[in-house]
């Protein structure tokens, strides 16, 4: 019998490989929508009944096409996603949706929109921007409500049917509740999941209902999971849309028991209070805190609380080349912590230079 963890790992390995798109939807299959961004209102994508999946980069692939249109000063994740889109790596997408979670995502949106206009032969689909802001103002809340409403209307126009918002909110709340319970397995002492395994569990390429079923099975099988007794690390900083950095760190005997990016612990959210666009706008207004949307003080307070919750023994801040924001937070984070902290700065995409980690904070298992 295949365990839930094995099934989730397999689904994670399939991310970025969607079924063929169904232009015109004459066969009844859902639209295939690729999306980018940490604050994408994915609940609306589920409510629309589209086949949605998050577009990810690949550190092992050729960035040349992405570099050509975005330049090398943009976060390499965005450059890799663009290169992969132009190379057809994600199959035939019906639509692309981008959120304004950071400057690199916005640059990617503008590049996609302009390429579709001036190079129709590239085969890029319509691209839509969801501009959610995160300032603590009533004017920002009103702005976000308008953007959420416009996106909901656009999805209804694309699919030709009303959104099932109540069903989507209930499903995403349940998935988040189960992910929170799974996260506790990683926080156990010793940990019952590695950081790499939690990435797979949280980002398995599955419809929400199938994901929920496997999460329930995983929790039922928790007593059979292996124990991992390495030095416990909290990983802060840049997003990790691939497992490469996790694998590099954990190969040294560390265990990543928590993080503060949207592919990890930040994918676990508070329940959305009501099945309405007002509640949804409020929910995404306050999502985070990621390095690009929160103050250094907010990030430091979050780090201190998260380190205590997951009983980390070492804090590692990781800042990728052309993604400098996480490094700016590090002094405040270090001052707020009562455990050793190290900064891995200007790292290559998908790589981790662990020399400083080995020298200053060796792992002894």
From TrEMBL:
Record InterPro entries: FldB/FldC_alpha/beta (IPR010327)
Single GO term (MF): hydro-lyase activity
Similarity comment: family membership: Belongs to the FldB/FldC dehydratase alpha/beta subunit family.
Name by which UniProt lists this protein: Benzoyl-CoA reductase/2-hydroxyglutaryl-CoA dehydratase subunit BcrC/BadD/HgdB
